[in-house]
UniProtKB/TrEMBL annotation:
<dbReference type="GO" id="GO:0008081">
    <property type="term" value="F:phosphoric diester hydrolase activity"/>
</dbReference>
<dbReference type="Pfam" id="PF03009">
    <property type="entry name" value="GDPD"/>
</dbReference>
<dbReference type="InterPro" id="IPR017946">
    <property type="entry name" value="PLC-like_Pdiesterase_TIM-brl"/>
</dbReference>
<feature type="domain" description="GP-PDE">
    <location>
        <begin position="7"/>
        <end position="276"/>
    </location>
</feature>
<protein>
    <submittedName>
        <fullName>Glycerophosphodiester phosphodiesterase</fullName>
    </submittedName>
</protein>
<dbReference type="GO" id="GO:0006629">
    <property type="term" value="P:lipid metabolic process"/>
</dbReference>
<dbReference type="InterPro" id="IPR030395">
    <property type="entry name" value="GP_PDE_dom"/>
</dbReference>
Amino acid sequence: MPQNSFPAIHGHRGCRGLRPENTLPAFRHALALGVDVLELDVVVSADRQVVVSHEPWFSGTICRTPAGLPIELATERQHNLYELPYDVIRQYDCGLTRHPGFPEQHSERAYKPLLSEVFQDAESYAESLGRSPVGYSIEVKSSVLGDGVFHPAPPEFLALVLAEISAAEVGERVTLLSFDKRILQVARELFPQLPLCLLVEDERPAEEHLQELGFLPTVYGMHHPLLTSQLAKFLRDRGVASVPWTVNELTDMHRILTLEPAGITTDYPDRLLALRH
């Protein structure tokens, strides 16, 4: 739990500003730093394995083929994880090429892990550090246009993800996130006790988003410039927690802290941890 009512610190894709995103090195480093929550994204492979990855394809910005060759941005979607078995996915590298937007990122060989592997490694590593168990914010990467192309339809997608959460026995520390309201609606039916977070990045009123969703989620996760004192009050009055993303600059961190969110998602948890300490 966060200390002294300080918002929970969510390590975005582990700690993307410091280690290759959504990889075991990123999650381990975030745990060692002291994050409260590991934020990560999940997609599905051809053999229906739940893979930790932001895109359902291999990004030309950070990934290399099994032969070690760079991936052209124009053809990256041809490296579709939904069409590849996991044993092939594992052969790609997504850690040696530093993301150009994160000059502090330490490059190292890294693959896209399975969600089950992340759970197992994070739980054992946290225990070895002698720290309290970590929370998990798991974003299901889904869209209407992606159904059957980059991922299964929501019922199958969620069944696969929920099975992994159940098998790892970490359900009490998981929040399920999505921009796709269908995912959250199906999740509420399949696993009603699981906390849900609606992700929002547009300027439409929160009331409209919540009406479309059809229920009040546990968390409203907005792009951080959208969080104002008015929105913070609107959500607080309805019992909905706010967790803005992705807050990386100190000036933005200071502004967001004045609005007393439940959590803050950042690529640089070290910066936010320094403010907490």
